[in-house]
Design goal:
- Strands 2-3-1-4 form a 4-stranded antiparallel β-sheet, covered by helices on one side.
- Helix content is about 30%, strand content about 35%.
- It has a single domain, classed as Alpha-Beta Plaits.
- A hairpin with a 5-residue loop joins strand 2 and strand 3.
């Protein structure tokens, strides 16, 4: 077990912050990108906020992470998607 794995005990609540270009389909794109890796995710676990200029939207996703592998897969899917600028 490496140091990073020792920091989390699975399953655990894990927040993700995603920032991307605003658009009518932003929520759908976030959902479609994450749910293949977290099928138990519900819309109640996602909140959205637009920037003051409405150019960007942020999504805060509270998911129940089952493993480091699951989190790695979610991060890879989000960071490789052209719609998202930041994933924290």
């Amino acid at each position: 077990m490496n140091h990073q794995e020792e920091l989390l005990t699975f399953p655990c609540s894990f927040p993700l912050k995603i920032v991307g270009k605003s658009g009518d389909d932003f929520a759908q794109v976030v959902w479609q990108t994450i749910v293949p890796h977290a099928p138990d995710l519900t819309l109640q676990n996602i909140t959205f906020k637009q920037s003051s200029a409405k150019t960007y939207t942020s999504a805060t996703v509270m998911l129940t992470a089952q493993s480091k592998e699951q989190l790695d897969n979610i991060y890879r899917a989000l960071t490789s998607h052209p719609r998202f600028q930041y994933v924290l």
